[in-house]
Specification:
685 residues; four-stranded antiparallel sheet; 66% helix; alpha+beta
């Protein structure tokens, strides 16, 4: 019941007050209002009704909310002030009771509305004052806002009403001070109360610095309302108008405050408030420039042409200037303001193309990372950006732009589902809040950066792989040369010398000759073993003698005493020699790892050859590879053997347990659009 009572009570009181104001305006003549030095009461009460709508909406969705209650109190106070403002001339003309009370409330109590505004700034959006040392400051500001209302209650009538009051005395007490002293005290109270508004705005800034993302967005809505109020005041002061125009401007300011507070409390993410602030500032600036240009042209025309410009000509000149000046100026100034406030996040295509152009002019990843950090900082107008990229060896490369803040937010950079890096942005500040449109731009930039970084990493990795291949080839040549020069060459030379000695001794010492021949035969056998070893290192003989499938089964037979190995092969005949060697080495290395490290009881080897690639899979039921285990030489060699042929190799540990090595070895077919090598027919599950 209480949840419904508060919004209903506020609505009833404010509607009744506005209805009473309207009736009083209709029942009072202009002469009666002039005699009481008042104007229409409805125009005074309507802004309070706008605040009442905001209060009712907030309290319906958030019962008991302190800010909603404060809005309700201010709304009731405002509409009541309007009603009494209309009662004064009505009752004064008819000599009704309550005239003095109504005039006293209007003259002395209206200033409390300013205190309500200050309190709203101090409590919004949480309904609580700031904690810690700032609570004391907030309480001082709140007390200072009461200085003028309290002084108006106590000041003598001659100080409050310079032209005299139309009714009896409105003094509550008789101060034992002179009117001059009271006037000085009133001016000091004015300074304190108006200064409290500045203090309340400063407290909003302090709250913004300590707020989370949601509160910062809520405070931006309040900022927009404040900008609207300031623009309305400037418009009223510049145009020097009154009556209906002033009422409309005041209603516009109060409506902006009511809407912004309601949206900020209930749905702060309803729209792009940053864009709204930028649009408001841009429109106001353009309108001001257009007015200045119109006034300057009209002044110059009046000076040159005198009275030749009639009202029709002036209207035509103003319309032409508005059309000619407003549109291009608004476009240019709007882009300038938005770029100054929020960077280039509004120009999605320009930001992406600028990043692409910047990346094209850089070379290595070490040069690209600072360019990426600078591009993100320029696009989103933030003071700090750090870009981190995972290197092929598992390390992290990073580059920063600006000074790192205390709180940051992290965004992963992914490429085809694989995390390749991380983007670090400030967590505080209004520029750090990313709208849905900003998040879309960020996704585009991150995707562009991921592609560039991934391509550069792959190019670097390819170059390093080529260097390793060249070094490995030269190492193999050096080893073969050393084996031939230091092993096989001297052995064959020794055999030649022994056979020569045996030939010389065959007539004189046949036994010695036979002994030398036997030694030569032994050395020739050892030399043949060296030759077989060299040949095996170059290409396993089993591939030529048995074929790939049989050679793999032979490898499985060698480890079968320790592990039960199942071999399945399909279409493995007629494969290129390089593919056969890579597949054989991958299977042999994988089975060796199974025996040495996996602790498995079963293993499965599957070879499936398609029209363009050979898929190799070795799976076991062992303990798997721990996440903290660093890849060794064996696992790296598996990957390098596949990449030498333009393929790929991955080692995974499925949830069911064990380790699975999968490799794809292409032999001449084009890859598809995803970069994967197609294998027609049945695939390995």
């Amino acid at each position: 019941m209480r949840k419904v009572f508060e919004p209903v009570a506020i609505a009833v009181i404010c509607l009744a007050a506005v209805a009473a104001s309207l009736w009083l305006d209709l029942a009072t003549t202009g002469a009666e209002r002039a005699a009481a030095s008042t104007e229409q009461a409805t125009t005074t009460a309507v802004p309070g009704l706008l605040l009442a709508v905001a209060a009712v909406v907030v309290l319906v969705h958030r019962p008991g909310d302190a800010v909603g209650r404060l809005l309700g109190v201010v709304a009731c106070w405002w509409t009541l002030d309007g009603t009494l403002y209309g009662w004064v001339p009505f009752s004064l003309a008819r000599d009704l009771p309550g005239t003095d009370l109504g005039y006293w409330f209007v003259a002395r109590m209206g200033a409390f509305l300013l205190s309500g505004l200050v309190l709203l700034l101090l409590l919004y959006p949480t309904g609580r004052l700031l904690g810690g040392r700032w609570r004391t400051v907030a309480m001082v500001v709140a007390c200072a806002s009461l200085a003028l209302p309290v002084m108006l209650l106590l000041a003598p009538d001659p100080v409050v009403f310079s032209a005299g009051e139309p009714v009896g005395s409105t003094e509550l007490v008789d101060l034992p001070v002179s009117d001059a002293t009271a006037a000085t005290a009133l001016r000091v109270a004015q300074l304190l109360t108006f200064g409290s508004v500045i203090g309340a705005v400063a407290m909003v800034w302090v709250r913004h610095r300590h707020a989370d993302a949601r509160e910062r967005t809520q405070l931006k809505w309040l900022l927009w309302a404040g900008i609207m109020c300031v623009l309305v005041v400037l418009a009223g002061a510049t145009l020097s108008v009154g009556g209906t125009v002033t009422t409309v401007l005041l209603g516009l300011a109060v409506a902006a405050l009511a809407v912004s507070v309601s949206v900020g409390l209930l749905r702060p993410g309803l729209g792009d408030v940053d864009a709204l602030v930028a649009w408001t500032l841009t429109t106001a600036a353009v309108a001001g420039v257009v007015v200045v240009v119109d006034l300057a042209v009209l002044a110059a025309g009046t000076t040159l042409l005198g009275e030749q410009l009639d009202e029709r000509d002036v209207t035509l000149v103003v319309l032409v200037l508005a059309v000619v000046v407003y549109s291009p100026l608004r476009t240019w100034l709007g882009g300038l303001v938005r770029r100054a406030l929020l960077g280039r996040r509004g120009d999605r295509y320009g930001a992406v193309s600028a990043l692409a152009a910047r990346l094209e002019t850089t070379g290595t990843v070490d040069e690209q990372l600072p360019a990426l950090a600078g591009a993100f900082a320029e696009t989103f107008k933030v003071g700090h950006v750090r870009v981190e990229v995972v290197a092929p060896d598992g390390g992290v490369l990073s580059a920063s732009h600006g000074t790192a803040p205390v709180e940051v937010q992290e965004i992963d950079i992914a490429y085809q589902g694989e995390r390749v890096g991380r983007l670090v942005l400030p967590a505080q500040g209004f520029r750090s809040k990313l709208s849905q449109r900003d998040q879309g731009l960020l996704v585009d930039l991150v995707r562009q950066a991921a592609v560039a970084v991934r391509a550069r990493l792959l190019a670097t990795e390819l170059q390093e792989s080529r260097e390793r291949l060249v070094l490995g080839r030269e190492d193999d040549r050096r080893r073969i040369r050393r084996d031939l020069h230091d092993g096989l060459g001297p052995a064959l030379g020794g055999v030649a010398l022994r056979l020569q000695a045996a030939g010389n001794a065959i007539d004189d010492d046949p036994d010695r000759a036979r002994e030398l021949v036997a030694l030569a035969r032994t050395e020739i056998g050892e030399a043949l073993d060296d030759v077989r070893r060299l040949v095996h290192d170059l290409r396993p003989p089993a591939l030529d003698d048995l074929g790939l499938e049989a050679a793999v089964r032979q490898q499985a037979d060698r480890v079968r005493p320790e592990v039960d190995v199942e071999v399945e092969a399909e279409g493995t005949t007629g494969l290129p020699a390089a593919v056969e060697v890579a597949a054989y080495r991958i299977v042999a290395e994988s089975l060796t790892n199974v025996v040495r490290h996996a602790g498995a009881s079963r293993a499965r080897v599957r070879l499936l050859a398609g029209t363009s690639a050979l898929e190799v899979e070795v799976a076991d039921d062992g303990r798997g590879i721990g996440p903290d285990v660093t890849a060794g030489v064996g696992l790296l060699s598996l990957r390098e053997r596949a990449e030498e042929l333009g393929g790929r190799c991955e080692v995974v540990c499925p949830a069911s347990g064990g380790t699975t090595v999968r490799a794809v070895l292409p032999y001449g077919a084009a890859r598809d659009e995803t970069g994967r090598v197609p294998v027609p027919g049945r695939t390995i599950p």
